[in-house]
UniProtKB/TrEMBL annotation:
<dbReference type="Pfam" id="PF01370">
    <property type="entry name" value="Epimerase"/>
</dbReference>
<keyword id="KW-0520">NAD</keyword>
<protein>
    <submittedName>
        <fullName>Nucleoside-diphosphate-sugar epimerase</fullName>
    </submittedName>
</protein>
<dbReference type="InterPro" id="IPR001509">
    <property type="entry name" value="Epimerase_deHydtase"/>
</dbReference>
<feature type="domain" description="NAD-dependent epimerase/dehydratase">
    <location>
        <begin position="4"/>
        <end position="247"/>
    </location>
</feature>
<dbReference type="InterPro" id="IPR036291">
    <property type="entry name" value="NAD(P)-bd_dom_sf"/>
</dbReference>
């Protein structure tokens, strides 16, 4: 039986990845600071531990695994990443995790490791035009990420690829573009835009309004979780090291995303644009390289994923309300 280790298995993407690996017949160990808040883990073994601690890492990586997926990071949505208040933690915590995990894998002679980087590492100056952002993989240099989170991701990409060159490892690097779907964080300040929009609309009364940060004309693309997992596995098992984008090319403005959720809800809700942290003006996945190297690109329409995600978040809100009211 093949074995896999998922670092960050208590998170949104990690939880879905564990489920997929189990369906494929893997024995799976997960590790995180916490269990998933929204679903029971399907991992055969789950370790609650801090990967910044080398002792924990040695305990977790106590054998050879066929595949290791390093998703663990200190991260969140715009309200966490772009305020500047969390920069030291974001950089120190994530870099320490990557240094520890990669070194332990090397010492266990584990070859095949997936690392989840982010589109946040792309240069800010290539993402100022909301209608024509440049996120081709070869546009990464000269480097100028828009956040310290992006700088750490860029450093860690180079770290994993250096281990490939120097130690004959088979690390694979992907740049995720705004992954969303059910069983993800939807409140508390670390949620991404799709979940935040779903929560705001679900809580809004008919005839009310929701707040959207900035003028709402900033653009993004959003990738549904199932396609993220598919792309992750295809890359990990390929001969291509990356870095490669894993994202959707269906770009929308944040106001358009909000209107989409309002339409899904069937409510009469207005949009109120207010000041707030924004990040870059435009970002969209460029899928030419992944199509060339893996013979596959994401294709699920944003609307389908948002319908599923809204129903799940609305259900979570209703359950919380029912528990609080005692019904």
């Amino acid at each position: 039986m093949k074995t896999a280790l998922v670092c960050g298995a208590g998170g949104f993407i990690g939880g879905h990845l564990v489920k997929r690996l189990k369906r494929e017949g893997f024995w799976v160990r997960g590790v995180d600071l916490k269990f998933n808040e929204h679903a029971e883990t399907e991992a055969d073994d789950f370790v609650i531990g801090d990967l910044r601690d080398q002792t924990i890492v040695r305990t977790v990586i106590d054998r050879r695994f066929d595949e290791v997926y390093q998703l663990a990071a200190d991260m969140g949505g715009a309200g966490y990443i772009f305020t500047g208040e969390n920069d030291a933690n974001v950089m120190h915590n994530s870099a320490t995790i990557n240094l520890n995990v990669l070194d332990a894998c090397h010492k266990r002679n584990i070859k095949r490791i997936f690392y989840s980087s982010s589109a946040c590492m792309y240069p800010e100056h290539n993402q100022e035009d909301p209608d024509n952002p440049n996120c081709a993989e070869d546009s990464a240099y000269p480097a100028n990420p828009d956040s310290e989170y992006g700088w750490e991701k860029l450093f860690s990409e180079r770290l994993y690829l250096a281990y490939n060159r120097n130690y004959g490892m088979q690390c694979r690097v992907a740049r995720y573009h705004n992954i969303f779907g059910p069983e993800g964080t939807w409140d508390g300040g670390k949620e991404k835009a799709p979940a935040a929009m779903c929560r705001k609309v679900a809580l809004a009364g008919d005839g009310g309004d929701i707040e959207v940060w900035g003028d709402g004309q900033q653009t993004r693309s959003f990738l549904y979780i199932d396609e993220c997992i598919e792309g992750t596995l295809r890359l990990t098992r390929s001969d291509f090291a990356g870095p490669v984008n894993i994202g959707s090319e269906e770009m929308v403005t944040i106001n358009q995303l909000a209107r989409m959720v309002i339409d899904i809800s069937g409510k009469n809700v207005a949009i109120r644009n207010v000041p707030g942290p924004l990040g870059v003006r435009g970002r969209n996945s460029d899928n030419r390289l992944i199509g060339e190297k893996l013979g596959w690109t994401p294709s699920r329409p944003l609307l389908e994923g948002m319908e599923t995600t809204y129903r799940w978040i609305k259900g979570e809100i209703d359950r919380h309300h029912n528990r609080q009211s005692g019904s």
